[in-house]
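G., the chain you wanted modeled:
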Amino acid sequence: MFKKSKKQATLVVIALILTVIFAAAIFYFSFETSSQSSAEGNVKFRALVADSLMEDYPNPELINYIVSVLEKAGFQVDVVTGPNVNLTLYSKLTEYSVIILRVHGGKAVYETSWGEVRKINGLFTGVLWEDKYSYLKRTWLATDAVPYGSNKTYLAVLPGFFLEKLSGKFSKDAVMIVASCYSLYTYDVADALARKGLKTFIGWEGPVTLNHMDNVVKELIEKVFLENKSWEQAVIEVNKELGPDPLHKEYLKIVIYK
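Predicted structure as tokens:
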């Protein structure tokens, strides 16, 4: 969770060592979706698999499998791991029509200087925190963050980062899967990306276990790219077949924007 502060919330992650689960509860702003992103211009058929967890919680079999499925579906796939999951990468997410992030995620409840209680969530990079990033903290674009079970402090981005630093616009029907705890704890991250044109955001409100997360992501990709299901239908079926996370009872959720 974020540390409570009247002016700043310091992200203390609630780990993505607990990650993923797919929910039958599906939230969406429009019923329309696409089983494969059909991007335009130079983003057509480009996909990103970003895994900042690779060093501490590696699953190369999963990453290799996802890449093979996407390549067979006609995508050019970029794989980015560890500290290369950084601010530069996050600022260029619009270059891809399918984005899969396997990262830590965190939340916070904090009180403002005028006494209002607010919630916030953010996504980790794979970059260790340094004081040179403090200016981003002062402007609520990023913060320092510590995953549960770790003594490392990382740089994590807040929703404002995507509003201010994300370049360009997403292609039509772009989708992002965030394999992380708390990516939908609030809708602020998803809403910020939607303002840049993202069509579909898939994530989890609370904590989820890593093993369940990886299994769900694998099956979700299969249903969309091998069975030609829509993202919405794939989420429904995965939730039904794999059930909630065995420990935290969290389900995957999907948000679809007009």
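The chain has one domain: 41-256.

Shout if anything looks off.
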